[in-house]
Design a protein that fits this description.
0% strand, single chain, mainly alpha
Length: 68
Amino acid sequence: MPDSAPAPAVAKAPATGTRPALPAPLLAAARRIADTHHAEHGTPITAAQLAASMGIALPVATAALAQL
């Protein structure tokens, strides 16, 4: 006979929890650089520009901008 018990519920991670949190000092530096860039150029910094300015990988810069 098949088991008639309902399948256990699977908890899903919240959408905001899918990105790993970056260290606070990295985010603070990214925010400072992004703010300075905007003040000097009048446009938001791109992930590529942030990556080059900070010497970090593009995916890390992209994640930092997403968290700012």
